[in-house]
Amino acid sequence: MEWLWQFRDGIDEAEEVLDELEYLERKKKANSDKNRLSRMVDATVKAAKRLLKFDDVLGRLRTCVKNLNTSASDVQNFLTLVMQKDGNSTGQMQQEILPLSSIQSRITSSLPVLSFKGREEEKGTIIQYLLGESVEESEIQISENVHFLPLVAMGGMGKTALAQQVFDHFENVKKEHFDIKIWVCISTDFDASSLMKKILEYSTSRSEFGPMEQLPVKLKEKLHSKRFLLVLDDAWDDNNQIEWEKLCAPLLYGQKGSWIILTTRLTSVAKMVSKVMRGVTMEPMMLQGLSNDECRSLLYEHAFVGQDPNRFPLLKEIGEEIVEKLKGVPLLAKSIGGALNSRLEVDHWTSISRSELWKMPQDSKYDFIPSLTLSYMMLPPRLKRCFSYCGIFPQDYKFNKQKLVCMWVAAGLIYLDGLEEGSDEDIANCCFDMLCNKSFFDIHTYIWRSIWIGQTCNAPYGLGQDYYTMHDMLNGLACYVSRYECCRIIHGAPTCILDYNAICHISFTSNHPAQLHELGKMLCKFQHLRTLWIEYDGDHQQFDNFIRDACKSSRRI
User: Fold this and answer.
1) CATH number of the domain where residue 226 is located
2) What per-residue confidence (pLDDT) applies to 262?
């Protein structure tokens, strides 16, 4: 591991020197545009300075090359150790060295849409509840205002997909049943005031300003005498009853027949919210795994894109083994299907089926199914870098494709292999489409008043424009594989050990001036910082000053 970091540091240093050489060349060209008299007056001084600087940069470049030669001399020993450790994973090693161009042809002309399988019965039941068509529920709706339904299941079981199907039904089919329809992602950062602000922004389609203490009053006025549908997606907090009470208090003023649907992995969260709700609380709907038939259908849909599975009888036999190992988890079926799709060959499918990762226990810190790592391991190196970079983004983040593509290019993750045509941006777009094709991203189309309010800095989308999300477990996987290079700092608390010699990419989320000040003092300590992604909801002038100082202290951003 130490050898790898030395090698990476050598490459980073060489890239910085080459960037500096390019800068000097551009500066020389810019200076040549000045008037002739000005050039004559200071030509001697400027030439001397430039030669001294150029010699200094060339000297650093020679040192970089020498260090890289020293590190490269150990590469054979490193590869020997890797092959001994993974001797039974030849299929995985072969996939590792495949160039991007060799699998590019497997991208279909249209990217996959969100698949929904095996939840039709639950979907129908929930829609009946919300319409009041169930006999028992009709009686309840006469005497109660706001109803609460928790959807509970482990990660990857399709809670959000089911809630989205129900939400879309009332957005597109039964449009008039609810006066207001709201979708808010909670995730791990639970704060009643912030959530009330999101609910108001979603329901009014505009930013919410003013004192935070006025939010409960505004929300109560907005929902009063209105029948609403509110989805609270991905709730985790089961300890802070006071914050839940603050959030629920104004929600209870909705008209009769209003509904709140909550998705969570924890029954303790469902119990906590049920405790503070004074309306009707349904028993939690516990989502079980898909049947083998449903899992098989989902797996093959992603593994045999554009192909007839019956043409591959041997692969179908191996596929049956894999279906048993999926344990009915739809996310796993989609992700493993994308990994299988890379090579429709027996050795490749066998290496996935027989991987030891199926037997590993789940890591509670990063919170993803270990076998999900297979979908990452089968990616070419360039796609691995692009995916792992996404570890700096928070859960439930809404990706704008073009912004992410530009960030990949700026961070130096994209390069041409000599055989490819097009710009860095073209290659980065191709990388994004391939990751989307393999279900690392889910695609959504923004419809007016149907955007999931979450990050205000990422909010403005045009009508009909696509945006993308990453499942929480894939987000956890990205955090895990990038843990030595990427770090999130959320309200002053880093999600990993801050190794100032290794971390290259940081995201920072806060609204506290003191925490922004602390970050400013830390920046100069990072030796290889290339990305600083900030979500700060505080004083604008202080933020402007911080950005100026950050650009001075971190040369490689």
Assistant:
1) 3.40.50.300
2) 94
What pLDDT shows up at residue 464?
52
- CB 523, CB 550: distance < 8 Å: yes
pLDDT at residue number 15: 73
User: Nearest-CA neighbor of 441 among 479, 475, 394, 486?
Assistant: 475
Residue 394 DSSP symbol: P
Predicted local confidence at residue 461, as pLDDT? 42
Hey, CA dihedral for 438, 402, 386, 159, is it positive or negative? Answer: negative
Query: For residue 301, is it within any domain?
Result: no
CA distances from 57 to 22, 183, 485, 526 (A): 11, 54, 26, 22
So what's the pLDDT on residue 75?
A: 65
Other CB atoms within 10 Å distance of the CB of residue 275: 12
Q: Which of 64, 84, 104 is the last residue of a domain?
A: 84
Quote the domain boundaries for residue 503.
483-553
What is the Cα–Cα distance from 115 to 90, expressed in whole angstroms? 32
Q: Enumerate residue ranges in the chain where pLDDT < 70.
A: 1-9, 32-55, 57, 71-115, 134-144, 188-189, 279-280, 364, 417-420, 446-464
Q: Would you say residue 445 lies in a domain?
A: yes
Number of domains in the chain: 4
Do 264 and 321 reside in the same domain of the chain?
Answer: no
Residue 49 lies in a domain: yes
